[in-house]
Amino acid sequence: MTAKKRVAAETDDAKPVKKAATKVVETLFFSRDESWLRFNQRVLEEAQDATNPLLERVKFLAITASNLDEFIEIRVAGILQRIEDGYNLAQPLDEGGLRPQQRLDQLRERLKNFVAAQYRCWNEQLLPAMRDERIRVLRWEQVGDKARAHALEFYENEVDPLLTPVTIDPSHPFPRVQNKALCLALLLKNKRKGNGGTRPAILGVVTVPRSLPRLVPLPGPEGYSDFILLHELIESQVERMFRGYEILSCSAFRVTRNSNLYMQEEESRSVLESVRAELHNRRKGDAVRLEIDGSAGDEIVDRLRMNFELDPWQVYRTDGPVNLSRLMNLYSETKRPELKYPAFAGKEFKLGPKLVDLFEELRTHDVMLHHPFDSYKTVEDFIEAGARDSGVISMKQTLYRTSKDSPIFRALIEAAQSKDVTVVVELMARFDEDSNIRWARELEDAGVGVFHGIFGFKTHCKLALLVRRDPDGIVRRYAHLGTGNYNPVTARFYTDISLLTSRPEMTEAVQKVFNYLTAETEAASYAPLLVAPLTLAEKVIALIARETAHAKAGKPAAIVAKMNALLDRPTVEALYEASKAGVEIDLIVRGMCSLRPGVKGLSEHIRVRSIVGRYLEHSRIFCFANGGKEEIYCGSADWMPRNLFERCEVLFPVTQADLAKRLREEILAAYLADNTKARLLQPDGEYVRAAKTVAPFAAQDYLMRIAEGAVEAVPAKAKAAPEGTVS
Questions:
Q1: CATH code of the domain containing 61
Q2: Are 539 and 509 part of one and the same domain?
Q3: Quick check: 481 and 463 in contact, CB under 8 A?
Q4: Residues marked as binding for ATP?
Q5: What is the pTM of this model?
Q6: Angle CA(437)–CA(565)–CA(19) in degrees, nearest 5?
């Protein structure tokens, strides 16, 4: 079946659900949105956890705010859009059995409660703990004379030149407030009387410059780290900006807009031009949420709400900084290493004895890396070697997200001077579109052949292919296949798997995937790779069904699967059938999970755990017992409809015995044994911490100690608390 036919089939499946199916949907599947909110709650719990270093807790709180921003501008905005477009009754029920308006009504209270919990964490836990450590976020009236003089000098030199005060009147319309831009709203009274007497109060707006840090460091007493929020510094000077007006009140506010991209293929000259146009539209998206300082007067709130056409429930009054995500600056600006996680550097890869280079190493065996425990530099070295090595004839690579000044990006540009270089750049990587457009332009200018994959499908697979004429005169292919982005920055705090190989069957299949991405030519087979949207979905179901058959035949049958999210309904249903047949299933799902575990007669053999810790769990690993002939896959795809049907993804087998053993007995075993950062999903949808019936064990800490050479023993699964027990 072609990719387009598969998408059509998916669309056909999305028909209104009959009444008879409603009860099944409500019973068997958790709501995606509710599951996401529970994930962000687990992140918030890390901010509340006093056993974590203090500044790491601040960082976790900032992450919850950033996560919530994306949820509002994508998920909530999408629900509002469907309701406004009249789809409330016409659309099928969601995973939790609700219509869009019902889902929105349920989310409203959950969101308000979560925001209240965020600010309780900030005010009642983090601020007092920071004060105890002599880290202070001061109000203007608390700033001493020396620090005030420093702040005013900073204001004069760095801030004031960037400010544009605006008053709202018939000749000055309300300015276009960009998505998530922090602003000040002022209620102003003109000191001059008009012809008819006292003039009515008007609104003033000042946008806080995004180019400046949200927290301004201040000189303080010896041993203190003092800061003032940038908007409070600006607020202290508003009278200078609005001379001739009496300042009745002033409040910080922020508007979140609909950030979904809506593209029409028929109207597009190119993907690049379409994305550029839609990015411009995103900045003008409809308002979805208004955040405003809790002390703001009702008149300011009402004027802003009416201007942005928001309902009262869309207004969020904050008991602290309006944008908590900018607390990340506090983490980076405070030089207190004792209040952060201890520094860690991944283990460097070393060539085998008497081997000349990485290419010679890969001709003898595959190399697998588990980042960040294994240094990402090996991947960079692989790409850089391709650029420098005179034997390398051509290079091909996918780029989903990269980083500024990436060594990989520079290597591709360098390679284009002497080799054929092809790069498939995904322009629609959410919130990285702007930077990816710039990278694409720079690569094209350097002579790189730049492609944007297949229209309508994000290119999410992580592949690099080098073609080299080796010293023996034979032309060979060398490939990197991964679970994470080619981003050296995120590689330091995302857990991911990399496989480097020269196996002909693997590298030939990678070549076929690139042909598909650049020419949409479908091969008869991509084996041993599983490729979305072509073969992956069917193969995943087949692999699960095979375990079901093995269990029924009395053969070894088990599944251990690690991923970011599990939402695909046919996959969940296949897992339910496997559980009913007796297959033992352990799922390590960091984020959203629609599967309901532990239900007698349905999923009693399924256990689901989520691990939230120092590193963002990003690797996807899938292990199938296969009647005693175990198969293990890694790759870029979660078990979600978007990964299986709307993206170009690749899962690759790990067949080398020592590498498969490491995945099973070191990496997966560690995550299953975690009783410190693991939470277990209950049948009612709540997550509870694993019980510490044995010594505390944290998988990420353990894997770091292995990398440092401090431990060698592999954790037995017996170390884990009995599944389903709670602390």
A1: 1.20.58.310
A2: no
A3: yes
A4: 67, 494, 590, 618
A5: 0.89
A6: 110
Kindly state the average pLDDT of the residues 342-359: 93
Q: Is the pLDDT of residue 518 over 60?
A: yes
Please compute the mean of the pLDDT values over residues 511-532 and round it to a whole number: 95
Query: Domain of 55?
Result: 3-116
Instruction: Give the active site residue among 460, 480, 550, 605.
Output: 460
Helix H or strand E encompassing 182 = strand 182-190
Asked whether residue 366 carries a pLDDT value surpassing 90, the answer given is: yes
% of the chain with per-residue pLDDT over 90: 74
Count of other CB atoms within 10 angstroms of residue 384: 18
For residue 452, count CB atoms less than 10 angstroms from its CB and return exposed for 0-12, middle for 13-18, buried for 19 or more: buried
Q: Give exposure, 91-115, as e/b (b: 16+ Cβ within 10 Å).
A: bebbbbbbbbeebbeebeeebeebb
Residue 132 in domain: no
455 and 539: one domain? no
Both 238 and 369 in one domain: the answer is no
Structural domain count of the chain: 4
Dist. CA 568–CA 532, nearest whole Å:
14
d(CA 45, CA 60): 9
Helices (H), 49-189: 54-70, 77-84, 100-120, 127-132, 145-154
| 172 is known as an active-site residue | no
User: Which residue in this structure is represented by tokens 């801030």?
Assistant: 159
CA distance 461 to 514: 10
Which residue, 634, 353, 676, 306, is CA-closest to 495? Answer: 634
* CATH number, domain containing residue 378: 3.30.870.10
Within-domain flag for 337 = no
Binding positions for Mg(2+) are: 401, 430
671 domain-assigned:
yes
Q: Is residue 50 in some structural domain?
A: yes
- If asked whether residues 296 and 159 sit together in one domain, one would say yes
